[in-house]
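Re: the multi-chain job from yesterday

Posting the exact lines I submitted so nobody has to dig through the queue logs.
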Amino acid sequence: MTRALPYLVPALAGVLALAAWQWSVRAFGVSPIVLAAPSDIAAAYAANYETLAAALWFTLKITLMAFALATAAGVALAVVFSQSRTIEYALYPYAVVLQVTPVVAIAPLLLIWIGYDNVNEVLVVLAWIIAFFTVLSNTITGLRSTDHNLIDLMKLYGASRWQVLWRLQLPGALPYILTGMKISGGLALIGAVTAEFVAGSGNDLGLGWVITLAGRSNDTAEEFAALSLLSILGILILFAMTALEWALLHRWHESALKREG
Amino acid sequence: MSGGPLLSLSGIAKRFASGTQAIARVDLDVAEGTFLSLVGPSGCGKSTALRIIAGLLKPDAGTVSFPSGRPEMGFVFQEPTLMPWATVLGNARLPLDLKGVPKSESNDRAARALTRVGLGGFETAYPRELSGGMKMRVSIARAIAAEPKLLLMDEPFAALDELTRQALNDDLLKLKDEDALTVIFVTHSVYESTYLSSRVVVMTPRPGRVAADIALSPPPARDETYRLTPQFMRDAGTVSAALKGAMAS
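And the result, structure tokens for all chains:
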């Protein structure tokens, strides 16, 4: 019972909130344009099932591609920085510039450069830019947190730079990399949707564009339906990352330990 | 036990980038088979000297030489300095892995080293599952796994409780005898150095110099009762007086 409590309590709270929502919309006669009742949203799901499923799939694809690129580029660049201070000094400020520039402002440029015919690639690049920096900065911190005595010990035994990196720095940085990835996964989703708002969807239809279109036609129920799918997607990404973190760290890292006694 | 000098320091000096003169003109010959303790107040450059011997720091002046060739070395830090993501066996195997010893052989040798420090059966445990004393034993097993001739230890037992420390002192003496090790042991404990050493070198506060060089002859086989003998009291008194003298200089 106590084990199920952390799941039961929020589930119950959710059901109660839905019931209260449903009741107030009907009781106060709220316009469906302002706020759709849960039953209307359920109906919108049923009516637009195929559109929504296709849009969900499309947004998921963009998100996962951006996330994979962000992780690969973030870790790779951090490794390069850890090997050469000069390169770090040369490039890091520009990585920060990329991070602090609002991505919306780059979208029109990217559309021109990458082409209006390749909107999907523009979406991936925009979402990648949003998701990339957190992996980079977390990995840099992780690689720098290596125990200096262990590095000395490895030098005493004649270890090469690659042995130090591979056997010591990367495994030690793993908890940091995974934390970065956890945040980055959510950011990739936010990036994928935001990118669609500003760049459109091309020939395909993602959840961001579904929300835009539903908004234009005052179909609030469909907006809510798409929105709830985004929440579910975000939660699934977070769960997947938490599971990966547990699988890789639970044997040895403090963050993944259960308290005993 | 003793032959020619295994290692020879001459005119060693080291100043850090911050401008602090850590050690100034240290000369020291260490014969093979010696258990030498470096004793001194905090910040007298004991650890710096140890790192220079290990080749981890370059001295500003002077030379470190090994007349009969650079021996295989093991290093034990004050902290256990283990890789938390690796098992006990994986940690003990590290020096052998880095030297490219085939895995079947390195597993055997690391497991044997662990058995020798009393950790047989803990091969698959992770460091977080061990007590402080056991972690230090893993650290020692790692140091002896590569069969060093020279063992360098930087206040290895300073953070342990008295009983654990005593047990590890005795185990260390046993390992030293069995493997005919030369040990250079940094400590700030007069009693620990007196108990363990055949030679105690006392250093002055920063910048570190050799203030006293004391030869001791403890009985080859000893246990904690040795700490109650007149010989131990007298030796500890000598080391203590030399340390006081060094602090005043």
